[in-house]
Amino acid sequence: MTARLPLTLVVGLALTAVFVAAALLSLVWTPHAVESLNIAARLQPASAEHLLGTDHFGRDMLSMLMVGARTSIAVAIVAVGIGMALGVPLGLLAAANHGGVIDDLVMRGNDLVFAFPALVIAILITAVFGPSAFNAILAIGIFNTPVFARVTRGGALAVWTQEFILAARVSGKGVVRISLEHILPNIASLLIVQGTIQFSLGILAEAGLSYVGLGAQPPLPSWGRMLADSQTMISFAPHLAVLPGLAIIATVLGLNLTGDGLRDHLDPRLRRRR
């Protein structure tokens, strides 16, 4: 019998799908051009022409939110991809050399990176190269690397103690082959769940970096910078802050629910309890 999907997974996927669809749609169509300024129509409330109103430059808020979703999702996806591409091999290498010099070097390197939050890393990068979406991606990706390295190492160490790994070693398989053919497939579900969680944190990190001016730069819309631009107008135009704030909350909530649901669905022990 097919296992029933957890409610958290269904709700999380539904919320995430809305914003992913909006981001994909913005690649080919938006209600209005986000570069189009119309000062005469600034700070308008919701209407038939502007379903979510306009900002202080007369730009359509719905269009800004759609393109902002594309920016946030693209930055988070690439940053998480960088973290996985660097962290997973390091974690596998550390687990294969548990207790050795390589293991110590990898874990102490992780501790060093963990000592600097993504914002501090972004400040260091932008001090050299200047603020941009690419530098935000680089900062978040660097911060994600030790997260995936630790998760991979922890999961891999548990698998290395299994009897089928001993059988693989007796059959003549090397460490690299065992790591790729046996260890990695057995911790894939763990990495998928962690990737979903880091994706949501990447959305938050991108918004935070853009809020302080270190992320995507004008004229590219970003939810974080929309919040920063609205803070002096919140008393007479609250929709400028409420709309991007709700978008960030709903997207992060959807991704967190998806991560929790995937954990419940992929973990056989949790699945048996339902």
Name a few traits of the molecule.
mainly alpha; MetI-like fold; elongated
Describe the protein's architecture and organization.
This protein has 274 residues and is mostly helical. It has one domain: MetI-like (MetI-like fold). It contains 11 helices and no strands. The chain has helices at residues 7-26, 61-96, 101-114, 118-129, 133-160, 163-170, 175-186, 188-211, 223-230, 239-266, 268-273. α1 (7-26) packs across α2, α1 (7-26) crosses α10 and α8 (188-211) runs antiparallel to α10. The longest helix is centred in the N-terminal third of the chain and has 36 residues, at 61-96. The two termini are 14 Å apart. 42% of the residues are buried. The model has no long low-confidence stretch (mean pLDDT 90).
Short overview:
The chain has 274 residues and is mainly α. It has helices at residues 7-26, 61-96, 101-114, 118-129, 133-160, 163-170, 175-186, 188-211, 223-230, 239-266, 268-273.
What is this structure's SSE topology?
Blueprint: H1 7-26, H2 61-96, H3 101-114, H4 118-129, H5 133-160, H6 163-170, H7 175-186, H8 188-211, H9 223-230, H10 239-266, H11 268-273
Output mean pLDDT.
90
- The assigned structural class equals mainly alpha
By CATH, the topology is MetI-like fold
Apparent shape: elongated
Strand content: under 5%
Count of helical stretches: 11
Low-confidence stretches: none
Global Rg: 22 Å
Q: What is the highest CATH level, the class?
A: Mainly Alpha
- CATH homologous superfamily label: MetI-like
Oligomer: single chain
The helical percent reads over 70%
Q: Mind summarizing the main beta sheet?
A: none
Number of individual domains: 1
The N- and C-terminal alpha carbons lie at a distance of 14 Å
Along the chain, the helix and strand elements come as HHHHHHHHHHH
CATH architecture: Orthogonal Bundle
The number of distinct β-strands equals 0
